[in-house]
């Protein structure tokens, strides 16, 4: 029974995330999500007390998945820390080539929208971005230690500056509908970290 309930809850969240990623949070009503998920409204309120609580759970789910993907990209695998760090930024460019760099990232999509709407949802996004920066800082510190990144700013400051730059570039990518801002972020990242153009596979 618990497995079924978890499955239904996850199905509602996954359906909602797909729709909200494209349209935003405010523009999507519960009826649209429930119709797409094939779930009655009574079932929705069994799992979520309100649309805001649903949004909070959706973002927690998204952040958890995002951090798991980031951990996999940055995990030690015998390659220099700098190479692992650049895989993360490369993934932004790959998504841009697929036409979904800005739309895929709910941090970019929803931060401005929910910051003034819901303290609970804002807090989830803030914790998530802080966790991302912490992981990037740890990888940069590993790069200092293994010599693949030249010693420079404090890892935390460097990671925060890079993440803020890439978030801004992703937003500009949405506005311009071209990847030039992300390309610029990549060049700036390599310059800041004093990295070569490519790393061995």
TrEMBL record:
Keywords on record: DNA-binding, Transcription, Transcription regulation
Q: Which SUPFAM superfamilies match?
A: Homeodomain-like (SSF46689), Tetracyclin repressor-like, C-terminal domain (SSF48498)
User: Its Gene Ontology molecular function terms?
Assistant: DNA binding
PROSITE patterns membership: HTH_TETR_2
Task: Write the protein's name.
Answer: Transcriptional regulator, TetR family
* Start and end residues of each HTH tetR-type domain: 6-66
The superkingdom listed in its UniProt entry is: Bacteria
Q: Which residues bind DNA?
A: 29-48
Is the keyword Transcription assigned to this protein? yes
List, alphabetically, the InterPro entries matched. Answer: Homeodomain-like_sf, HTH_TetR, Tet_transcr_reg_TetR-rel_C_sf, TetR_C
């Amino acid at each position: 029974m618990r497995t079924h309930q978890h499955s239904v809850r996850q199905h509602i969240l996954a359906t909602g995330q797909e729709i909200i990623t494209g349209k935003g949070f405010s523009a999507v009503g519960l009826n649209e999500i429930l119709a797409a998920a094939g779930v009655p409204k009574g079932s929705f309120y069994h799992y979520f007390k309100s649309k805001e609580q649903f949004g909070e759970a959706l973002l927690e789910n998204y952040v958890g998945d995002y951090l798991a993907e980031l951990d996999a990209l940055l995990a030690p695998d015998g390659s220099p820390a700098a190479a692992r760090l650049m895989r993360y930024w490369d993934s932004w460019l790959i998504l841009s080539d697929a036409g979904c760099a800005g739309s895929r990232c709910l941090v970019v999509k929803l931060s401005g929208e929910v910051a003034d709407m819901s303290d609970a949802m804002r807090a989830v996004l803030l914790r998530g971005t802080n966790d991302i920066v912490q992981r990037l800082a740890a990888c940069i510190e590993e790069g200092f230690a293994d010599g693949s990144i030249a010693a420079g700013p404090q890892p935390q400051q460097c990671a925060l500056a890079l993440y803020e730059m890439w978030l801004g570039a992703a937003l500009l990518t949405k506005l311009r509908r071209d990847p030039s801002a992300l390309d610029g972020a990549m060049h700036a990242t390599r310059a800041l970290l004093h990295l070569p153009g490519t790393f061995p596979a």
